[in-house]
Amino acid sequence: MFIKLFHTFLTFLLFSFVGTDKDTKIQQEFQGKAYYFSKSKMELGAWGARMSEAQKKQIQERLKNRLEKTYILAFNKSESLFYEEEKVQAISGATDSWGSNFTRGKQYKNVNENRLVQEQEFYGKKFLVKDQLQPIEWKMESESKQIGNYLCFKATAVVPTQELTWFNFSWGDLNQDENQEIQLTAIEAWYTLQIPIQQGPAEYWGLPGLILEVSAGNTTMLCSQLTLNPSEVVEIKMPEKGKEINKLDYNQTIKSKMLEMRNNRGRGRG
After folding, report:
1. What are the C-alpha distances in Å from 92 to residues 62, 102, 216?
2. Helical (H) or strand (E) element with 54
3. CA end-to-end span of the chain
4. What is the DSSP letter of 132?
5. What is the pLDDT of residue 14?
6. 69 near 103, Cβ under 8 Å?
7. Beta strand 79-84 with 68-75: parallel, antiparallel or unpaired?
8. 254 Rama sector, left if φ>0, alpha if ψ -120 to 50, beta otherwise
9. In b/e form, how buried is each residue of 104-132, taking b as 16+ CB within 10 angstroms?
10. pLDDT digits (tens, 9 = 90+) for 80-133
11. CA 55, CA 73: separation in Å to the nearest integer?
């Protein structure tokens, strides 16, 4: 309770030391772009236990473009657009065509309207996933730290793993029992009251300040560059192309397609 009151007091101070109407307008019209470096650790499980360190390193290098990414979050007070930064892929002799079917598409969030819109593509078919934002029950912690020029506060939460990775699939997902216990993922986020908007990268939102760092499972996203209130208006355009579908139906559609592919592959071998 004390921590929540302390954060509320800090937010009040941020808006109290404003002298002119012009300054007030600037304070209220937060917009900008945040660049996040995302790094994931590869879990090889029992298979990895039989591999040498050199073999593990070789696989990590081949999949580096999947484990390390840069994302951009364009934002204002109520809306955001989160997408992967386009870059020229180095020719390494390695391909990840399977993984490319489960990469995150452009994601639009509107915190005022509790709305999520996300582009997804599966083997050439385009989907437009529309749903509500994933609710996150944040616990405000007492720790703080500096990220760049911003004082950040820690918050934690626990959410169903599926809600964070709903766009990603593996063959193992086809063998899961519907009555299986729901897997949970612990989240650690760091947000700044100096940018008092409820936005953040990926599925993360709902804190009293912009999220600059978040760790969940084997992935960490860290803001490495931030442009705040540029002279030009930051364009945030909601995705519009693709078959409209909600997250649950999208999940079932892709699983059904994967099951069909597996069965066809089995008949081909027979």
Report:
1. 7, 21, 29
2. helix 53-62
3. 64
4. P
5. 42
6. no
7. antiparallel
8. alpha
9. bbebbbebeeeebbbbbebeeeebbbbbe
10. 999 999 865 544 444 444 455 567 789 999 999 999 999 999 888 999 999 999
11. 35
- Rounded alpha-carbon distances, angstroms, from residue 249 to 74, 166, 256: 28, 11, 10
Place of tokens 């703080």: 144
Distance between CA atoms of residues 116 and 206, nearest Å: 13
Which contacts qualify for 208-211: CB closer than 8 Å, 24 or more apart?
A: 208/7, 208/8, 208/11, 209/152, 209/153, 210/34, 210/75
Rg of the chain on CA atoms, in Å: 21
Which residues, in sequence order, are bridge partners of residue 53? Answer: none
Helix (H, G, I), strand (E, B) or coil at 45: helix
Question: Which of 152, 134, 139, 270 has its CA nearest to residue 209?
Answer: 152
CA-based nearest residue to 100, from 130, 128, 129, 120: 120
**Both tokens of residue 159?**
């959410």
Per DSSP, the residues of 158-183 read EEEHHHHSTT---GGGGG--TTSPPP
Cα diameter, the chain: 77
More confident residue, 230 or 266: 230
Residue 227's contacts (CB-CB under 8 Å, 6 or more residues apart) are 32, 33, 34
Instruction: Return the structure tokens found at 223.
Output: 């803001």
